[in-house]
């Protein structure tokens, strides 16, 4: 089998690239203590008059002043009431009585023996747990055992990302190589865990792996041609200050690979399943007919998925897009700037890899399906002779009148069950079994 050597090679590559000795530690500053608390009182006060500032200076905060009383719920001062200023500034949380918040205790620079309390953010643990429970329950309720397998695959994806991909890049490994091996490992685990060890899944795996390699090659060529450095976002710039040895250009390529994987396996699994259903619905279709019919489905899928990719990247970059719309430079300069060019290249390369996945997976599925069907037919012909129809039954069927309310031709009603079964699969037959 073709898949087995690829799986063994992926496992060996992962073992060689697996980070050893842990990720390098960065100096992220002192660890400020954080304590959960509950707001018991909010007192708003008029803000003092602000000093005059030059016209056109950006406004910082919304001028909220006052105090907030908070009961500390955990830690060495549990049960104590502390007073904090009303949170103010960009992104500051708005608090009301009863809100559960996170408190930080900061030492006074002028007097280390005293400390000041401030509200950092809201507690989000409980709502996020409930959201996760609803998410998992909906998937299991609709997908049943397959939904449960999908959740296991999701957990496996995060485990590989957190234990191999991210530590491997942080340890100084090649981001592109680590991302390709990690994506391949995720693909093998998730697809076989979710869809079972079948020939249909193997076709989807091969189509996904081929498309990933093509996406990586296209991403390398596109980023080199456009001279992208990887410093196209504030996050990348901040990362370079904490970990100067990280290859940001390679990290950009790794992001394209990981981001393309989720859409690619969707398309490849769909195309493999489409070919299977078409072959079961009409066993007389040839390889070319299967390929053409399934490709028509793939075109419709691609037409909607391309829009999905662009909108996903646009939604994740809305602050950047709003910032660029306020830019007074010509549109050509904006589109070719590092910030926007990076997103354009990312979307274009992912789309090209997605388009290539349709003919690649469909062709593989058509070949495998036709080969499996030919082998099954040859086995059946060798084991038993083809049954011949009874001439008297055929004449009786042609001469008998149609019954009232019947919308089936007589030849179909009188066809032997074995013949009907050979020509059409059962209506409740599952296509999840091996081909």
From TrEMBL:
Pfam families, sorted: YibE_F
Transmembrane segments: 125-142, 149-169, 175-193, 205-228, 248-264, 302-324, 344-368
Region (Disordered): 72-91, 377-435
Lineage of producing organism: Bacteria, Bacillati, Actinomycetota, Actinomycetes, Micromonosporales
Recorded superkingdom: Bacteria
Coiled coil: none
Keywords: Membrane, Transmembrane, Transmembrane helix
InterPro entries in alphabetical order: YibE_F
Protein name stated in the entry: YibE/F family protein
